[in-house]
């Protein structure tokens, strides 16, 4: 089954769903399990390190972060995640987004964050992460409130990225999906 037929296809910049606020998850059932499976598949297929449910068109507060950038043994699925602490020190690293075709730009983010969330078993948890893990958590949680990383950039940089995105989007034939 191609991505075109998939209920959960990846959404790109200019898709209005990316600008919506997601609703809290109140129950974890079969629909959420299917959603998580699709999110994991899309993340791997596009070589991403994280994904938020709105990026596949679902306005629910669910994010996924690759285990490769989190502390060993950490959860990779975060339900109703909230960043409850940010370090004062920041790091500037290249940051991209699958909804922007992985076009990246340097961006300052807290070096460490703590995130409160519910795990897939429905238990309340807190995870502290650093570096790329902290960056991905900050980035994915923002998706749940309709925020994209380019919103943190200057107007000029944002325009340059939008132009690059639109060109690449056309070149890849994505407008004809
Ligand atoms: Zn993103």
> Which spans have pLDDT < 50 for at least 5 consecutive residues?
1-5
* Mean pLDDT across all amino acids: 94
DSSP, total strands:
7
Measure the end-to-end span.
Answer: 14 Å
Describe the structure.
- The protein is of the alpha+beta class and 177 residues long.
- 26% of the residues lie in helices and 24% in strands.
- The protein has helices spanning 30-45, 131-143, 155-171; strands spanning 50-52, 62-65, 77-86, 90-95, 105-110, 112-118, 124-130.
- The chain has a five-stranded antiparallel beta sheet with strand order 1-2-3-6-7, with helices on both faces.
- A hairpin with a 5-residue loop joins strand 6 and strand 7 (124-130).
- The longest helix is centred in the last third of the chain and has 17 residues, at 155-171.
- The protein is globular, with a radius of gyration of 16 Å.
- The relative contact order is 0.18.
- The model is unreliable at 1-5 (pLDDT under 50).
- Zinc ion is lined by residues 97-99, 139, 143.
Which descriptors apply to this entry?
single chain; 177 residues; alpha+beta; Peptide Deformylase; five-stranded antiparallel sheet; two-stranded antiparallel ribbon; 3 helices; 26% helix; binds zinc ion
């Amino acid at each position: 089954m191609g991505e075109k037929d998939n209920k959960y296809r990846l959404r790109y910049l200019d898709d209005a769903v990316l600008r919506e606020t997601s609703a809290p998850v109140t129950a974890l059932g079969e629909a959420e399990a299917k959603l998580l499976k699709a999110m994991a598949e899309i993340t791997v297929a596009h070589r991403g390190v994280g994904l938020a449910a709105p990026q596949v068109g679902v306005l629910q507060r669910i994010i996924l972060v690759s285990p490769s950038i989190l502390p060993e043994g950490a959860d990779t699925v975060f339900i109703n995640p909230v960043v409850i602490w940010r370090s004062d020190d920041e790091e500037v690293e290249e940051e991209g987004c699958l909804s922007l075709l992985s076009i990246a730009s340097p961006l300052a983010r807290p070096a460490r964050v703590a995130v409160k969330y519910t795990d897939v078993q429905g238990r309340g948890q807190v995870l502290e992460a650093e570096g790329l893990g902290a960056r991905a958590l900050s980035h994915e949680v923002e998706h749940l409130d309709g925020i994209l990383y380019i919103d943190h950039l200057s107007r000029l940089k944002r325009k340059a990225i939008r132009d690059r995105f639109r060109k690449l989007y056309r070149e890849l034939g994505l407008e004809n999906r």
